[in-house]
Specification:
This protein has two helices and eight strands; from the N terminus they run αβββββββαβ. The chain has an eight-stranded antiparallel beta sheet, with no helix packed on it.
Amino acid sequence: LSAITDKLQALYQTGLTDRQKGRDFIPAWRTPDGWLQVQQQSAGLRALRVSFVKPGTAWLMLENTTQDLRPFFVEMEFYDAFGEVTGRASVESESLGELRPGEVRRVLVPMAPGHPRFWDVTKGFSVFLE
């Protein structure tokens, strides 16, 4: 009976962790330097690190890895422990606001929490670059 209980407990824990999506969401005030490393690359852009600040701001360090001027579009999704979406964020470059070749820029990404207790329940996030 003890062995079965242990197996059921292990399955339960696996079920909980398998539902989590994205990277770990840690607000800026809980990190030593205020930033989380992302290191995600897509379509000539690289998200280097991000900082989440109340009430609804994400600062994203974005790099143009191409040799051309590069407009950008960034979208973020936030998830609770069960993989349900708790909020979204997005930003795109303005006219004449493209990234120069090799440029690294800190970009303000306004967050739109979709849960009344967003900062308490959010456990993960994903970054999408275009």
